[in-house]
Amino acid sequence: MTTIESRTDGAVTAAEPTGETESPWMRRLPWVSGPIMLLALLGVWQFTVSVVGVSEFILPSPAAVAGALGELLAGDDIWGHIGITLLEVVAGFGIALLVGVAVGAVLGRVAWLQRAVQPALVALQVVPKVAFVPIFVIWFGFGPTSKIVMAALLAFFPIMLNVMLGVRSVDSGHRDVMRGLGAGRWATFRNMELPTTLPYVFAGAEVAIVFSVIGAIVGEYLGGSEGLGYLVVSSLNALDAPRLFAVIVLLAVIGSLLYVAVTTVKKLVIPWHDSVRTGV
Amino acid sequence: MTQQTVVRRSEPFPVAHPDPGRAVGLRVAGVDKVYPTRSGEVHALSGIDLDVAAGEFVSLVGRSGCGKTTLLRVLSGLLAPTTGTVEAGGRSAWVGGRRDDAVFAEFGLVFQEANLFPWFTVVDNVALPLKLRGVSRGERRARAIELCATVGLTGFEDSYPRELSGGMRQRAAIARALACDPSVLLMDEPFGALDAMTRDRMNLELQQIHAVSGATVVFVTHSISEAVFLADRVVLLTPRPGRIRSITPVDLPRPREAEVEATAGFGELVVALRRELDQED
Q1: In this predicted model, what pLDDT tens digit does every residue of A205-257 receive, in sequence order?
Q2: What is the span of the domain harbouring residue A223?
Q3: Judging by beta carbons within 10 Å of its beta carbon (0-12, 13-18, 19+), is residue B50 exposed, middle or buried?
């Protein structure tokens, strides 16, 4: 077809993009406010210790915690503990991701099945799942397996529920487009259903990675002799408050890094999505 | 005036177009469409007979709920008629309740909403029909860039739909519909959501696209003046159940400029059609 001369020069420039534009100032704000809040926290903390005079057993000073953290990281066995906890979290999360996507996709598509299993899902959801840890210890032993199962169980629900919603969220107008083009099943899945569902998968994954850390740590609290959760409990038993705080700081850092890892993958896979653009 | 121009079920208006071999005519015969709903059946279309000649531009007008969108969806193969037949280029579209995809392969559809995929850039959206046909990446990109130029989207090829205004999105949707060089273009109030000025401009562009491509166009609108401006024939539908009330040939010379709306011939057609629409109740 020959190109039709556009009579509407200026139409292009006249039309303003409707997407919100974020000023560079807004973009940089979290990078400024984050350190400020951290400094404020440390300040209040130090103030409470040195001026209010809280006991070292209850609240060790930031310096003492930093010292304990340095000692911890210089030790030989800490990396083993970190490795075990990471293994449990990542394995649990991975299992939850695979099973959650599969189950969510099936339940999202097969309405009667979803209705049928609804009561079981609700029951499982309202039960405090960490209560199962002792049972998993009986079934899977004191090793990493019981923690992986706990992490997977906690992480499964946000992923499964989001995928179920995502599969149902295909726009009817988009469906018309694909049907109008006579697209086959595979092409429809690849070009429409999968991209529609991916943001939901990531929304679930962002919650799930946090839940996996919780699952693994709670598992380690209750049984076993390795992992950062075990270190927390052993520090408590030794009444070593600085070390207890140091392990918790380590956990916070690891949890944050894992979360950042998930959001980074999200930014790479669905750069077009609103949640990536606005950073929400 | 009205008695002469408003002809019931007239013969297709003859249109000259540059590529008569490729364009495809449409035929709808005895089509009824009944939807089952909770409060009983809804008779959306009743006894629709319509012939659209190859290369012809037909506008469907009527009030909301008169079944014009339903008729277009039946024509585009998105809805199966309850009874009756739909043919394109002499081929039956539905065989034993199954859609014959080959019939619709050369159709281009434009909806009220742009329905662009937010995960694709403008070129990728425009190239989607080519992608589904297995055209190579480089080739379809080149073609999509060409189409973007056709609809005045040069410079926005690699933008995402959310970065475009409503009018630009609708242009991209039209470019997508044109990607496979359709022999039939079916458009459902494509400019309904646009402001009046953009709409006028889009109408001029659409007229050019029609002239150059030689495609058969069926265009749904609730604006009588838009229908008259664009069409070779205006089909007026009345609601509950949707029936064809009249078919009005528009023999205004082409190409039509915006000034045509100020002519007496244009005004008379619009007034006659409006009067007819008002007579309904």
Answers
A1: 999 999 999 999 999 998 788 999 999 999 999 989 999 999 999 999 999 99
A2: 80-270
A3: buried
Q: Which residue from B107, B155, B208 is facing A180, i.e. has the nearest CB?
A: B107
Residues of chain B with Cβ-Cβ distance to A198 below 8 Å are 119
CA distance B53 to A246: 81
Residues with Cβ within 8 Å of residue B32, at least 6 apart in sequence: B43, B45, B46, B47, B48, B81, B82, B83, B84, B241
Which positions in chain A touch B115 (Cβ < 8 Å)? 171, 173-174, 176-177
**B 32-91 residues inside an 8 A Cβ radius of A:** 76-78
Q: Which of B78, B117, B201 sits opposite A8 (nearest CB)?
A: B201
Within 10 A of B114 (CB to CB), how many other CB atoms are there? 23
Q: How far is B12 from chain A (nearest CA, A)?
A: 26
pLDDT < 70 regions, chain A = 1-22, 277-280
Say if B200 is an interface residue toward chain A (CB within 8 Å): no
Q: Express each pLDDT in B233-256 by its tens digit.
A: 999 988 878 888 888 888 888 888
Structure tokens at A122: 């609700």
The token pair that represents B43 in the structure block: 């008779």
Residues of A in contact with B153 (CB under 8 A): 12
Residue A74 lies in a domain: no
Which residues is B43 bridged to in the sheet?
B34
* Domain contains A31: no
Q: Tell me the CA distances in angstroms from B250 to A36, B233, B266, one per residue in order.
A: 72, 5, 8
Chain A contact for B263, CB < 8 A?
A: no
The CATH number given to whatever domain includes residue A112 is: 1.10.3720.10
Domain total in chain A: 1
CATH 3.40.50.300 assigned to domain B25-106+182-278? The reply is yes
ipTM: 0.82
CB crowding A256-278: b at 16 or more within 10 Å, else e: eebbeebbeebeeebebbeebbe
Q: Say if A73 falls within a structural domain.
A: no
Short-list A236, A234, A247, CA closest to A58? A236
Does any CB of chain A come closer than 8 Å to the CB of residue B205? Answer: yes
Question: Is A198 inside any structural domain?
Answer: yes
Of A180, A198, A274, the CB nearest to B76: A180
Residue of chain B nearest A19, judged by CA positions: B163
Of B178, B212, B191, the closest CA to residue B107 belongs to B178
Residue of A nearest to B121 (CA): A272
**pTM here?**
0.80
Helix (H, G, I), strand (E, B) or coil at B95: strand
